[in-house]
Amino acid sequence: MTTEAETDVQDGRDEAFSKWYIDTVLKAELADYTAVRGSMVIRPYGYAIWELMQQYVDRELKATGHQNAYFPLLIPLSFIQKEAEHVEGFAPQLAVVTHGGGEELTEPLVVRPTSETIIYDMLSKWIESYRDLPVLLNQWANVLRWEIRTRPFLRTAEFLWQEGHTAHATFEEADEEALLILKLYVRFIQDELAIPVYQGRKTESEKFAGALSTFTMESLMGDAKALQMGTSHNLGQNFSKAFDVTFLDREGKRDYPWSTSWAVTTRLIGALIMVHGDAKGLRLPPRVAPYQVVIVPIWRKDEDRDKVEPLVEDVRHALGDAGVRVKTDWRDQVTPGFKFNDWELRGVPLRIEIGPRDVDSESVVIARRDTREKTHAPVSGIVDEVHTLLEAVQANLFAEAARYVAAHTSSADTWDELRERLIDPGGFVTVNWCDSKECEIALAAEKATVRAIPLDDREAASSGPCVCCGRPASFRCVVARSY
RNA sequence: CGGGGUGUGGCGCAGCUUGGUAGCGCGCCUGCUUUGGGAGCAGGAGGUCCCCGGUUCGAAUCCGGGCACCCCGACCA
C-alpha cells in the first residue's frame, strides 16, 4: 500500500492523516462509498468487526438486565417537536418523508435521528405504576442525520448503533443507570478495543439535546485529535414530561419517571483504525479481529503442497477447536509475499507460515502484526502459544495507545500556554475552567472544546483561576481539538 | 453554507494548452514458468471520454449551461 503517513502524524499533517485513514478504510475493504452522498456500505470485513462489537455489548447489556426491542424507523414530525431542546438540536439534521403511496401525507414523518420520542410515546402507554419500573430497553438500529460533512465510519448520514432507553422511579436510580452504562462502555472500549478512554461529563453546551447531563468517553486518535467514543445521558424528567409519561408511586402520588439514554456506534470502527493503524494498514486487537490468525501455506511444486497441507489442516483444526478465529489462505494466484502484505493491511493479529521446511522441523513461523516480529514455534504447543501471543498483542496495543495518550497529555495555567499545548504536544490539555459560555466560545476560536469534566470530585476540584477569563474556576477539566 | 479539486475501460491516471476519432500502469481472463516479504513472459477481453446544448468538415479537447462526487473549514455519535 502507498501510505505516506505514519501513525503519529500531527499538526500540519492532518491532511496526510486523513488521506491515510480513508485509504486504509477502502483498501482493507472495511467500507466503500455508494451512489448515495454521505452514505457508505459497510463491507463484510468491516461488518464482521461490528458483529464482534455487538456480541460483547449485547451480552453485557443483557447481563445487566436490559432487553432488546425494536421501534419504527419513521417518527411523526410532531413528536420531535415536543421536547424544546431536542427539536432545536436535531431539526437541522432531519430527513422528512412527505409522500407515501403517491399521496401527500397529512403529517410528515421523519427518519429517526434517534428514538427517544417514539419510545416515550409508547412508554406513556406502558407505564402506570412504580411496579412497571424500571424499564430497561435497548435497540440495535440504524439512524439518519443529514450531515453536511461526512467521513466513513466517523460521520456518515446513516449509521448503525445500539441505543439504550431506560425509565426509573427516582433521579438517583437514573443517575446510577447512566453511570453503570458509562462503566460498561469504558470496559468495552478499553478491554475489547484496546483503546484508553478519558471519562467524564459534558458541559452544558456540549451535552445531548434534551438531557440533564451527559456522560462521555473521549479517546485520542493517531493525529492527537480527540474523538467521542460514546455517550450516556441522564435525561431527567424532560422526555417523560414532554410525552406525559407518568406513574403512581408507593404513596399513590403521580410522578414523572426519570430516564436515561445511551449509545455506541459504528464510529468505533473508525476509532479502531485511527488509534491502532500504522503505515502498513490496520492493526486489529485480537478480541475484535474477524480473523485472529491467518495461516499462509507455502509451497513450490504440487509435491510441496501435498506435503504441507496435512500440517496446515492440523493446525487450523487445533486452533479452531480451541475457539480461535482462524483463516487459511490457499489462494494460488498470489505469492506468499503478497499474502503477508495483504493480511497485514487487514490487521490480522497473528500470521502462521507453514512451508516444507516447517513440516520437516515440526514447527511453524508465527508473525505478530503489532510488532512485526517473527518467531518459530513447535507444532506441539501451538494452541497455547497462539493464546499467549493473542493476549500479548491485545495488551501491547493497549499499552502503545496508553503511551501515546500519556505523551499527548499536558496541562496549562495560562491562555498562551494552553494555545501552545494544543499544538505541542497536542492532545488533551488539563486546565482550570469557570464553566461560562463566553469562555467556551473563546476556546472554540482555538478550534478546541471542553471534552470532559472528571467525575471524581477530587480530580475535578480546582482552586486556581480559569485559564481563559481568570475568574475563580469551577473545576479542572480536559480540553482538546476533536473530530 | 463558504473554499479547493475531480469526472476518460473495474481502479489510479495521461491526453485537453495547439481539435483529426483514445493511451499508460494496476487489476481481470488464458497458457507456461514461478511461490519463505507485494513474481515473470506471451497472448487476450474490456471505453456512450459525467450530462445537455453550441462552434466546426470533424470535439475527450474549444464555448455555454447543468449534474455528481471527493477534500478542507463552522454543527454533530
Tell me about this structure.
- With 483 residues, the protein is of the alpha+beta class.
- It has three domains: 14-276, BirA Bifunctional Protein, domain 2 (2-Layer Sandwich); 286-405, Anticodon-binding domain (Rossmann fold, 3-Layer(aba) Sandwich); 409-480, 2-Layer Sandwich (Translation Initiation Factor IF3).
- The chain is built from 15 helices and 23 strands.
- A hairpin with a 6-residue loop joins strand 1 and strand 2.
- Helix 2 packs across helix 6.
- The two termini are 25 Å apart.
Short characterization:
The model is unreliable at 1-13 (pLDDT under 50).
Itemize the secondary structure elements and their pairings.
Elements lengths: L13 H14 L3 E3 L6 E3 L1 H20 L3 E2 L5 E3 H4 L3 H7 L5 E5 L2 E9 L4 H11 L8 E10 L13 E11 L2 H22 L5 E4 L11 E8 L5 E11 L1 H5 L4 E2 L5 E2 L2 E8 L1 H10 L16 E5 L4 H20 L4 E3 L7 H10 L4 E5 L1 H6 L1 E6 L5 E5 L3 H26 L1 E3 L3 H9 L4 E6 L3 H9 L3 E4 L4 H4 L14 E6 L3
Parallel strand pairs: 3-7, 15-16, 15-17, 20-21
Antiparallel strand pairs: 1-2, 4-6, 5-6, 7-8, 8-14, 9-10, 10-11, 11-14, 12-13, 17-18, 18-19, 21-23, 22-23
The structure holds one RNA strand of 77 nucleotides.
